[in-house]
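Per your request, structure below.
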């Protein structure tokens, strides 16, 4: 089969298969199974062994048994609610086959009079007789029944038998795929080819064998294909030629002399990486990644400044008004010789009009703001750089659109404080170049992390009182009991009411139902120290500096993942003061929970914490990446198959360096990543 036919077959609709009508295909669509390829990855979870047959006298009641019998009498009462019966026997006894809702004709066909048939099903016993109700596994060909039958996680309305038949058909017709030309890779997986591996994985004896080479080689294809797609996006963006941004490095030094700290080694390193991109004639598409408080903002501002000095405008966007304003305020302080302005959804009409006009006429060098800076009405005269802060939830598609938006001369810099495990970097951010800040600024005070049992509330309140008397502020995070917003809401409201009585006029509340405008107002008040305790359920936006807040209390802390706790902890400890993070627990901790907690107490390295978090909870849950359209693998597992992710990364780098692009790569991408984004590429 040619490659074209291969993927045409694999991507064809299920309706083309025997036994799949519109009804079945619609049921499968509900489970996001649209074509043959999708179905291949629904592997059996278990099997029922129907291979050993018993005589009637030895049947075990209540268990699934296989037996060979001869029907000797029909009983079709033709009365509503009374079942049809077929009486059968072998040389040791009798058994009744009971049929509800089956037609006589059908019954006579599957259980013909005086012919030997093999039946399998659950054995019942009623009025002193063995019986079997609505048996589905019946055949005159014993070999069909006497086998191990796979159990898949079934879609409602599709029986095990039908499902098995569909899979069987597909496996019989399964085409070959072009194999790896690289003998080393083939050798690594015992020279097992693609379709052989799939067929094996559907065999009962290989169920759950994730370490088998069948499983591993298919996982590898899957990982590689997602890297290939990313790599293609990256290459495509880099092909865009832009005019070089020429600026004088001494200008950057002038700004640095105005701030009262020295850049860390990693800040310098990442700034150089960005500057090199700006100066090149290839479009930049880069992520600046660094833990909370690692000092990304100054790096971004210096890059923005350089771009302005090279004669271009910059758009600097943050997800919330407050965060955008903090960046704007900092820029006002240190970037005195250029023109900057601010635009958000709340900007008044007159002001907004003025800003939009000034942008068009190139009278603004850097525009700070929220999503508003990307409205179609905002037309930059000469946009050279887009900076986006704290948007780790942008998926690949959104990022790609963003990079198209600014036009050809526009570089793109994204920033994120969400540390992710090393293994997942290519999966989540493979479409971008990466700059990572690992080093924290010197003299940064570490947040002290404590754990407390919930019944020690008195101690905690005493502590809070002391801090408030010192004019400090406190975040109080309430438990996420369920995914249900209603329950969260109640628990936060209750805590708010409780604390308000103890600390009158000092407490405010944020929860899932607070509108985003209201939220901004409350956060602004907190920032201005108008109240001292902020009770919240919703995770407060990353990135905002609350220099006066130095305590965070997290209730029912075991409901959060480690990465989440780490991020929450990062909300405090930005100012001069000693800060603390108090993790509250309902009851004494299990050994496992203690271990988790220790990691958090031992390290402030977000990368390490995310690594441990992934091992404990799986990769899909890490900080809600699942919702961001992140690639979810069908087989591959970043913890289990860590080595394969590394191998695939090496392969991609080799392939990029040597400009290799085989037909196999294209087929892989087309099959495994049926995303919209591919329409552009393949
Ligand atoms: P993030 O990476 O989380 O965005 P910020 O850029 O907000 O971090 O920086 C956090 C704080 O650290 C700010 O108050 C900033 O002024 C300060 N800071 C940044 N770089 C340094 C440095 N090299 N030395 C000391 N303080 C720094
Ligand atoms: Mg930040």
């Amino acid at each position: 089969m040619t490659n074209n036919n291969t993927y045409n077959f694999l991507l064809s609709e299920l309706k083309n298969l025997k036994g799949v009508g519109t009804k079945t295909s619609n049921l499968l669509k509900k489970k996001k199974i649209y074509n043959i390829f999708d179905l291949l990855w629904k592997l059996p979870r278990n099997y029922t062994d129907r291979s050993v047959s018993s005589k009637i006298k030895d049947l075990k009641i209540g268990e699934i048994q296989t037996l060979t019998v001869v029907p000797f009498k029909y009983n079709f009462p033709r009365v509503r609610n009374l079942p049809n019966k077929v009486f059968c026997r072998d040389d040791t006894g009798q058994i009744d086959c009971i049929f509800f809702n089956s037609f006589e004709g059908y019954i006579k066909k599957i259980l013909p009079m005086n012919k030997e048939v093999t039946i399998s099903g659950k054995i019942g016993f009623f009025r002193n007789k063995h019986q079997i109700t609505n048996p589905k596994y019946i055949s005159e060909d014993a070999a069909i029944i006497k086998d191990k039958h796979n159990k898949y996680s079934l879609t409602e309305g599709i029986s095990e038998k039908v499902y098995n038949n569909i899979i069987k058909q597909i496996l019989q017709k399964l085409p070959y795929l072009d194999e790896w030309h690289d003998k080393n890779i083939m050798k690594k997986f015992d020279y097992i080819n693609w379709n052989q591996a799939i067929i094996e994985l559907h065999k009962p004896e290989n169920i759950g064998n994730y370490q088998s080479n069948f499983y591993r080689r298919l996982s590898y294809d899957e990982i590689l294909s997602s890297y290939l797609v990313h790599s293609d996006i990256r290459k495509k963006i880099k092909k865009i030629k832009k005019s070089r941004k020429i600026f004088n490095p001494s200008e950057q030094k002038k700004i640095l002399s105005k701030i009262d700290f020295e850049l860390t080694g990693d800040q310098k390193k990442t700034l150089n990486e960005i500057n090199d991109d700006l100066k090149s004639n290839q479009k930049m598409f880069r992520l600046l990644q660094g833990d909370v408080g690692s000092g990304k903002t100054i790096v971004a501002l210096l890059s923005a400044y350089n771009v302005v000095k090279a004669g271009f405008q910059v758009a600097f966007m943050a997800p919330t008004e407050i965060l955008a304003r903090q960046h704007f305020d900092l820029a006002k302080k240190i970037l005195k010789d250029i023109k900057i302005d601010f635009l958000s959804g709340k900007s008044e009409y007159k002001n907004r009009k003025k800003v939009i006009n000034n942008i068009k006429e190139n009278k603004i060098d850097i525009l700070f703001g929220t999503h508003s800076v990307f409205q179609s009405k905002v037309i930059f005269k000469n946009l050279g750089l887009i900076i986006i802060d704290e948007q780790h939830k942008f998926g690949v598609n959104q990022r790609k659109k963003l990079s198209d938006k600014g036009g050809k001369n526009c570089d793109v810099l994204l920033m994120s404080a969400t540390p992710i495990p090393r293994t997942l970097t290519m999966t989540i951010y493979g479409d971008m170049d990466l700059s990572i800040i690992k080093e924290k600024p010197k003299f940064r005070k570490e947040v002290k992390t404590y754990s407390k049992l919930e019944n020690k509330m008195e101690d905690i309140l005493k502590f809070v009182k002391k801090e408030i008397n010192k004019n400090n502020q406190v975040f109080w995070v309430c438990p996420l009991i369920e995914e249900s917003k209603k329950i969260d809401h109640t628990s936060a409201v209750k805590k708010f009411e409780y604390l308000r009585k103890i600390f009158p006029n000092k407490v405010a509340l944020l929860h899932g139902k607070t509108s985003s405008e209201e939220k901004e107002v409350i956060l602004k008040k907190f920032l201005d120290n108008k109240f001292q305790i902020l009770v919240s359920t919703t995770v407060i936006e990353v990135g905002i500096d609350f220099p006066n807040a130095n305590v965070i209390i997290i209730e029912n802390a075991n409901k959060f993942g480690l990465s989440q706790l780490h991020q929450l902890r990062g909300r405090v400890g930005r100012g001069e003061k000693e800060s603390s993070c108090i993790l509250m627990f309902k009851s004494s901790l299990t050994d496992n929970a203690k271990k988790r907690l220790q990691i958090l107490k031992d390290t402030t390295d977000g990368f390490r914490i995310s690594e441990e978090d992934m091992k404990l909870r799986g990769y899909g849950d890490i900080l809600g990446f699942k919702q961001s359209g992140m690639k979810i693998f069908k087989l591959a597992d970043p913890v289990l198959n860590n080595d394969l992710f590394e191998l695939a990364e090496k392969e991609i780098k080799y392939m990029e360096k040597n400009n290799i692009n085989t037909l196999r790569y294209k087929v892989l991408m087309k099959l495994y990543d049926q995303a919209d984004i591919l329409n552009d590429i393949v």
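The two ends are 20 Å apart (CA to CA).

Regards,
D.
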